[in-house]
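Below is a complete specimen:
___
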Amino acid sequence: MPIIPVSQAFVVLEGDTLAKAGVIEPKLIKFQNGPAIVQALLAGQLDMAYLGIGPAMVARAKGADIKVVASNIVEQISVIALGELAPYFAEGTKRSAFERFTADKGRKPVIATFPRGSVPETVLQYWLRNQLAIDPATIEIIYQGAAQVQQALLTGAVDGAAILEPVVSIISSKLPAARVVAQGSELFPNQPGAVLVVRDKLLKEHPQLVQALVAAHVQATEQLKTAPETAVDAVRKYVGGGRLSRDIVLQSLQNSQQSFEADPNAILASTRVMRDFQTEIGTLKTPVDLDTLFDTSVYDQLP
């Protein structure tokens, strides 16, 4: 997906790691949301993928032979409110903001996010139910892909969104009245985000290739954490198709700088929390064994 949480993919693609590992012309397939990647994994169309941990669990539960070998990012979701809704978060409690908006406007606030089962949708539901302790029916949620959410925000078709970078930076730059009203750990502590998965067959038949990929992933993560300005050109090529300004891409990377996390061990506990929550609300309908979904051995064996 052309989003900041998978920036490691773009840094690796623009480097020489894959070529050194014998992968000369990798076929890159772009998607607008995680559930679409799930279908491609189930159809056997992908050898590796960068996607949200939520869709990764769904794919594994439905029989995809995939392993999470690295994490990309944690706590990367933001809730952004547009001009009419934002003031209700500036005064009074966040818990009552939606209710006060409805009382004044005579309608529920409309919030956009990714499709059901995606990480942004799951985090939005977790925030509403577990952090604010309010009924999700208090708001109207619409489910869209990244480009559609951005367009809905820009046209004022919605009142806000639970969304990722670079959409947050784009909206903040174009709509001065928009405000980030909740983000990161406030929504879901140590929330697992995007991950790198590989097909189990690839891991077994080409372990050195997977090892080279994970090593490059770790190196890219360190670059994004310590010197995001050096990754702007690589990320900009894929996020927004080169149409986003360097300033927006840099701002998006800087906003995410401290959230990039490569160690899969760091998200094991919070993934269990997310799995149990998705099971509770019905977006994960088949049990998934996280011990079989995760394979930390490649990461653990890196020098």
Q: What stands out?
A: The chain has two domains: 4-74+192-300, 78-186. The CA atoms of residues 149 and 155 lie 10 Å apart.
